[in-house]
Amino acid sequence: MSSESEIVQVRDVVKDFRPGFGIRKKRVLHGISFDVMQGEIFGFVGPNGAGKTTTLKLLMGLIRATSGTAKILGHDIGETAFRREVGFLPENAYFYDYLTGREVLDFYARLSGVPSRERANRVETLLDWVGLSYAGDSRIRTYSKGMAQRVGIAQALVHDPSVVFLDEPMSGLDPIGRKEIRDLIIRLRTEGKTVFMNTHILSDVEMVCDRVAIIVEGKIRYQGHTHDFLDDGEHDCEIVVSGVEPELATQLEERHGAELRGQGERVEMRVAEKKVGAVLDAVLKARGRVLAVTPQRVSLESIFLDAVREEEGAQ
Amino acid sequence: MKAIERIWTIGLNTVREAIRNKLLYTLLFFAIVMIGTGVIVGSISYVEGSRILQDVGLASIRLFSTGIAIFVGVGLIHGEVYRRTIYTILSKPVSRAEFLIGKFVGLVMTIWLQLLIMSAAFVVVSLLSGAPVDLGHASALGLIGVELAIVVAVATLFSAFTTPMLASFFTLGIYMMGHLSRDLLQIGANSESASLERITRVIYEVLPDLEMYNLSIQAVHQLPIAASEVWLPVLYGLGYVAAILFAASHIFERRDFK
User: Fold this and answer.
1) Same domain, A217 and A256
2) What is the chain A residue with the closest CA to B18?
3) Which residues, other chains included, contact A187 with Cβ-Cβ below 8 Å and sequence gap of 6+?
4) Interchain contact, A92 vs B85, CB within 8 Å
5) In CATH, what number is assigned to the domain containing residue A270?
6) A183: domain range?
7) Which residues of B touch A159 (CB under 8 A)?
8) What φ, ψ does residue B29 adopt, rounded to 5°?
């Protein structure tokens, strides 16, 4: 490893596929490079077909790079022994449906080399973590999509890996399930594990990721810390009020530079962050009601959309 | 964990998958019914009823076992890729060769287990009908087991890179050619064309000689069987399986799982 803190190193990776029996190649990854640092949750974000899953398959040794290098924990991804330290949840994970949840975890624990004296305990712990203790003896074919996803997460962690790769981990989960998996991912970071997460759900990235890379059409268009865009200086605020008389509207526009839309029972206005206090005072004094105050920060969504538009413009 | 343990884990899981697959029970049931029909055929025959019973029994065992071996073998790898179960397995410290050999071992164990059940049915039916059962029958059944391992290896090879449909055509083709390869060699030797002789010789060398695994006639007619008629095919089978699995692993190693 060139640096102790780099858990994943991807350098100039190109991947070409040959569709069907055709001679022409289709380039899916155009020389991508990025690092994932120890102990962070790294969000790999992109629209459908951007190359997220291809990148993950490449890191898991399921496909071979046309050129470039990729390393995990300092090992070339073609090696297998180091995978004892790697956990992987594929997108829409599928397991042997004739096995029970407990048997599936035992199978993966055996393959990962978990010693027999620890295996049973480890399986029970993981079933408990993902909330499936009650269904451990039911066959996978009876599981809902959300339950299967939880088994997928459990098998990725059953051997206590130091780095975990998750492909759309919230896929198929209801809001409560998503919250639980988010909490689980954050818990992994607390335990010092590194998490690489493929997703297109931007709110999840904003909530859990430390750093993010945006991939569009096989090219990395943005890399940065999540706090770079969450705490990006001073922003406007969107305020929604009701009971605004014409005189108050004029006052808000002229004195505080507010941009108003609508009138009467629902008025929306955009004001500078530093003017929010004065505007709210003025509204309350005039017996108006404040319905909502929303900071208008630069969101991952806007960065994401800019990256996609930039790529579309380049084509 | 050693490679052998990982192969064993994958093999046992493959056996468990097969044991819980109801379709295989159906095929096994029909095989036993076919062995049983030998009693009827033997009873309506005027001559050598017990021999006809055993002929039908051994032929049924060979037919159904080979059918199951091809039917399950050709989907062995494809099913794992199609269902994406291979993704999670190869993300563990398991090499592709270990995975492939583990699947092969598991299917061979399953096929042998079924062969054991069919053989038990064959012995029961034979004894109930007063037909003799001796070491010759055991040798014939044992060599069917080795032949099945070769068929599974060939099915695994094709399953490693093509669809189940094509793999079943190819495997069935190799199986049939394997039983005809001695005749082909003879045709080449009898011909006056040197090139035809060379071609038939190459085909004979490359394809498995499966006719050496057919001791049914000797067993049923209680003809003497030399020890070399058993151990030579076993050695040949081990070598052939090893070569096929080596080639399959090599192809599988280069494959992209899109």
Assistant:
1) no
2) A98
3) none
4) no
5) 3.30.70
6) 6-230
7) 92
8) -60, -45
